[in-house]
Amino acid sequence: MSEVLIQNETFVNLLNEVGIPSYTPSANAQALLQVEAKYIKDLKINVSNVLNNSQNLNRKEALLLALSVAVNERFDLLKQSFTELATAAGATEAEIAEVIACTSLMNTNNVFYRFRHFMHKDFYNNQPAGIKMSIMMSPVLGKEFFELLSLVVSSINGCEMCVTSHEQSVLQHNSSESRVFEAVKLGAVIKGLITILS
């Protein structure tokens, strides 16, 4: 399999782009590499575009959002590489830690608020959530980016209530729909990448 990996220059470039040159192909990656699938080129272009060619996200922001997806999907290989790349782009240890904490909090909230949304019962909706969320009050990442990060993770986890709430909050913090669009697209592309690499 390593010969196929070396022969597929596009895939090697993709791995270098995300900082994992010593990757051992998963079954999904092997299936694509064995037939020189055209999708590898699409994936490389999509990943490169969201990490490097955003009009509304800087490099550090793009990498921190990518990190949140890797944390959310429990894919340690990309978690490590995106941590290193984000650090090289200027992210602090406190910012990295907050991305991890925010992703954990959104996993909590996404399950809880999806349940409320699905049930449509006054009893559940009227009970205090009782979930401690002090991290949201004065985030190291800044309120707008913390909300954007929350929106991306909530989009991946499919919580309509959280997506709607965080999108409104992002816009209230002087952001733009274009920035929201690019951030969610980045989350979608990195999730797709993880589908192949894991």
From TrEMBL:
GO terms for molecular function: disulfide oxidoreductase activity; hydroperoxide reductase activity; peroxiredoxin activity. InterPro entries: AhpD (IPR004674), AhpD-like (IPR029032), AhpD_core (IPR004675), CMD-like (IPR003779). Disulfide bonds join 159-162. Its EC number is 1.11.1.28. It is an enzyme of class 1 (oxidoreductase). The active site is at residues 159, 162. One of its GO terms (biological process) is cell redox homeostasis. The keyword Disulfide bond applies. It catalyses: N(6)-[(R)-dihydrolipoyl]-L-lysyl-[lipoyl-carrier protein] + a hydroperoxide = N(6)-[(R)-lipoyl]-L-lysyl-[lipoyl-carrier protein] + an alcohol + H2O. Keywords: Antioxidant, Disulfide bond, Oxidoreductase, Peroxidase, Redox-active center. The keyword Disulfide bond applies. Residues 141-192 form the Carboxymuconolactone decarboxylase-like domain. Pfam families: CMD. Belongs to the AhpD family. Antioxidant protein with alkyl hydroperoxidase activity. Required for the reduction of the AhpC active site cysteine residues and for the regeneration of the AhpC enzyme activity. NCBIfam families: ahpD_dom. This is Alkyl hydroperoxide reductase AhpD. The gene is ahpD.
